[in-house]
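Summary for the steering committee. One of the milestones for this cycle was to obtain a three-dimensional model of the protein with pyridoxal-5'-phosphate bound, which we needed before selecting residues for the alanine scan. The sequence and ligand used are listed below.
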Amino acid sequence: MPALTGDFGNPSSIHWFGQQAKTLLDQARQHVARLINAETGEIVFVSGGTEADNLAIRGIVESQKSKGRHIITSKIEHHAVLHTCKDLEKQGCDVTWVPVSSDGIVDPDDVRRALRPDTILISIMHANNEIGTIQPIEEIAKIAAEADVYFHSDGVQSTGKIPVDVKRLNLDLYSISAHKIHGPKGVGALFVKRGTALKPLQTGGGHERNRRSGTENVAGVVGFGEAARIARETLAEEMTRVRALRDRLEGGLQRRIDAIHVNGGNAPRLPNTSNIMVDYAEGEGLVISLDLKNVAVSTGSACSSGSLEPSHVLIAIGKTPDEAHGSLRFSLNAMNTEEDVDYVLDVLPGIVERLRELSPYYRKA
Ligand code: PLP
């Protein structure tokens, strides 16, 4: 609110009014930098996770043209990475899509084997947005460093949920989004390690140390900074509580409903994400029925351009399209309570039963 009402100057202006806004911007940059143990000069504010991913990947491709055009990424990336790499394939880049195990984990040896003399970038997400699996990015970063290849990780889901230390992890580029840590929508950051050769995507006034031109979204950035401060101060305590809620939810559902599975359940996972596959029930039906009971969840599948595509993540972990359509994704947060979880445990079994009654497959089984 201060940045929208009193201190709404332009941080690039040298008069006192602008400098007040600049101070707010600098404070927010410090909070975001601290959350991931970066230097303030390594934080580039952007419009969100999607832009951070685009800037990282396209920026490296543009800056490394003379070295090569080969990118290594995984089959379970968010569309912000997936579609960017697909677009770059059309523009002449070669992309290797490494697979994941049935638990949704990338094998670092697959990344090592995919390296070529013309590889310029490895982009592997930190934690998956649908099933929450945490990738071995420290090992992958080592492989990248040994091969002298830039390493980008999409940290949109992991930041604020698990401790992140970009120095210890030895990352070159790391994407963050404010709205995943209770900050405002439409603002995010790209961590760019000092000395990284990154071609900006936008030309203009040279803001953000020439990495991203355009007058900063000061109010959004300030909200992001505050969310980052709170996330850093409360992460350990809140996430222990959220993990316990998640386990209560999964354990309770497994006791009350037969033939359900937790996707990625055997892998290291984020504390807040639970992807549950319900055999013989259709995901969209589950979401709509839960919505009518005031429970907001999503399916593992994304509805794109009117056609219902099964989730590429669930397909990558070996599910059939039918199985993938029967998945529910719960995202818990620090504001959820045991009562919320118990309410779901009360209402979901009846919903599943009703939907299964409609399924010819369930009756046969
Ligand atoms: N990357 C991941 C892993 C995400 O989960 C998301 C959003 O859901 C994004 C990128 C895109 O972030 P934004 O919505 O801020 O553009």
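Key point for the committee: The pocket of pyridoxal-5'-phosphate is lined by residues 48-50, 53, 78, 80, 125, 129, 154, 156-157, 177, 179, 188 (CB under 6 Å).
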